[in-house]
Amino acid sequence: MADCNHAGGPVHHTYYKKMTKDDCYQVGHVTKTHGINGEVVFFLDVDDAKEYADIDSVLVEVKGQLTPYFIESIAIVKGSRAIVAFDDVDTIEQAERFIGCGLWLPLANLEAIDDETRFYFHEIIGYRVVDAQKGPLGIVKAVYTMATQDLIAMEYEGNEVLIPINSDIVPSINRAEKQLNVVLPDGLLEIYTTDAANENPDVDNEAEAENTDED
Q1: For the chain, what is the total number of helices (H) and then of strands (E)?
Q2: Using an 8 Å Cβ cutoff, are 144 and 153 in contact?
Q3: β-sheet with 179-182: strand ranges across
Q4: Pairwise CA distance, residues 59 & 30, whole Å
Q5: Is the dihedral of CA 141, 168, 186, 146 positive or negative?
Q6: pLDDT value of residue 45
Q7: Is residue 7 very low, low, confident or very high in pLDDT (cuts 50, 70, 90)?
Q8: What residue spans define the domains of the chain?
Q9: In the list 8, 165, 167, 169, which could disulfide-bond 150, CB 3.0-4.6 Å?
Q10: What would the pLDDT profile of 47-90 be if each residue is shown by its tens digit?
């Protein structure tokens, strides 16, 4: 991953100057350069990349800080990917510095969701997870977006439990109560809470064999 140093001309909007990650949501990251004229490729980790075809600026995560940049042009290609030209970034050397940098937009850009069966990933962080059978379980600590399956990371009895996101397992949320309603598959919690000793029976057997030899 390349170092995300400053490259090109940032946006000097007063609105953007005070932006932190708490004010924003991540939409993706820069994967590589494109051509020799300073263009880059965005991976947009969103439901519908076409909804972002008209954005005119974006916050780029530069050394842990969000730095805004104007977008000169953006073309959505291959589903979740976009070819983007930033203002004042005209060479491949300038563009290379963006590789691996996260892309963020202000939360104010998002439309409010009233439907309790749908939610933004960022909004459920800190929600209490309540199972239909077992009741309250733990707190949502993170959401991992994977190529094959998005996962909710819940802290439960000192362990991180990963919950697949689909309508059967996560049917709804209660925004007023900050509650995530789930129907966990049988045995899911046990996968993460089984004692280490039980997970490694060979270790115990070896130890027993050693003790037997000593006797």
Answers
A1: 5, 12
A2: yes
A3: 159-164, 151-156, 135-144, 128-131, 179-182, 172-174
A4: 12
A5: negative
A6: 86
A7: very low
A8: 14-108, 121-194
A9: 165
A10: 789 989 999 999 999 888 899 999 999 999 988 999 999 999 99
Whether 111 contacts 89, CB under 8 Å: no
Structure tokens at 126: 């800190």
Return the C-alpha torsion angle 198, 201, 206, 207, nearest 10.
10
Q: Report the distance separating Cα 87 and Cα 38, nearest Å.
A: 9
pLDDT tens for 170-198 read: 999 999 999 999 999 999 999 998 763 35
Q: How far apart are alpha carbons 95 and 118 in whole angstroms?
A: 36
Residue 110 is predicted with a pLDDT of 83
| pTM to 2 decimal places | 0.62
CATH superfamily of 121-194: PRC-barrel domain (2.30.30.240)
Beta strands, E only, the chain: 24-34, 39-44, 57-62, 65-77, 81-86, 102-106, 128-131, 135-144, 151-156, 159-164, 172-174, 179-182
pLDDT confidence of residue 195: 60
Q: Which two tokens stand for residue 83?
A: 């070819």
Q: For domain 14-108, which CATH number applies: 2.40.30.60, 3.40.50.10490, 1.10.3720.10, 2.60.40.1510?
A: 2.40.30.60
pLDDT of residue 18: 65
